[in-house]
Structure formats: structure tokens, C-alpha cells
Amino acid sequence: xxxxxxxxxxxxxxxxxxxxxxxxxxxxxxxLAAQDQLLETITxxxxxxxxxxxxxxxxxxxxxxRAERILEQREVEVLxxxxxxxxxxxxxxxxxxxxxxxxxxxxxxxxxxxxxxASGNDADGLRWTITFxxxxxxxxxxxxxxxxxxxxxxxxxxxxxxxELPQELDDRSDPLKKLGLARPKGATTGVTRSSRR
Length: 197
Prior knowledge:
By secondary structure, this protein is α+β, with helices and mostly antiparallel strands. The protein folds into two domains: 2-98, no CATH class; 111-183. It has nine helices and four strands; from the N terminus they run ααααααββαββαα. Strands 1-2-4-3 form a four-stranded antiparallel beta sheet, covered by helices on one side. The protein is elongated.
């Protein structure tokens, strides 16, 4: 009975402080993730995290697996009762350590948060400017730009969390499509080679 009350209290806290819609599901994922982490520590063959950030990143990894999504920064702040800078560090450490295992969740979060706007001009070339709500989503997007091999045609500003891409790549493909991003509503098709001259 006490466990149910504690779990309900935790869900209420997540809902009120982080605005989490699926707070009950998230708290259940947290409970199971803590169990996963403990059992892996006892029975696992991997290395044991050596500092608190690594321990938190590992727990967050298990939470994200159980919740089937990457937690938002505010949710990480509430989970660990920590400052925004510390939450960003935990997210960045988890991204660096568990990127491959959580690749689909990172991509889904990046795509959900990306804001695409048309930029540039006919003289200098039409471009897409993509802005991300947090550094982890920016890092995921840039990793994907490098993976699909058009980083040489893109420019990135990590501090501003923005990536600029031509509306059409040198191979005439659509960079937004390669990243799994939708064109903004009302945007026309990419500029053609003849109109760039």
C-alpha cells in the first residue's frame, strides 16, 4: 500500500513540476529501471559507473528503455532534483555512452523537437535552418548529418543549436527527407541547379 502511495505521489510531482502527461507510466518506468540498474550492477559483466554523473546517466538509460522515449531535460531535473546544467550533463553523458542502444528514441525526440524554416535567398542559395530545443537533440541531428554523409554541405552552430542545410544537396536529394524531417507548411520545393546560376 505504501508503494502505491509513494508511486502516486511521485507521479503527481512529475505532472506538476515537469508537465509530464504520462506521469504514471513514467514513474512505473523509473521504478523498473532502478531495479534493472541494481540487477545489472550485481550480475553484469560491464564496468560499474565511477562517478555520480555516470550513475545517473546509466539509470536514465534504463528509464528511457522502459519508457520507450528519451526524457526531456525538465523531467531529468525533476528525477534527480538537480539544476538545469547538471541535467544537461547527465543527458549528454547518456547520449555519448548509450547512443547506439537508444538510437531510435534519440532520433524520434530530435525529429519531434526540430523546427525547420526556409532561409537564404536566390543569389546565395536557398537553405533550411533547423533549430533544436536542446543540445542533445542538436547532437543527435548532427550525428545523423554525418552518418548520411552530407556534413560538408551543412553548417552547424552548437551554441545556438542550429543546423543550416541547402534545400537541395549536390546529389539533388532532399536533406530534410534524409533526416526524417518534414518540410515546413507552405514551403515550396527545393531550388533547382539552373536557378542557382
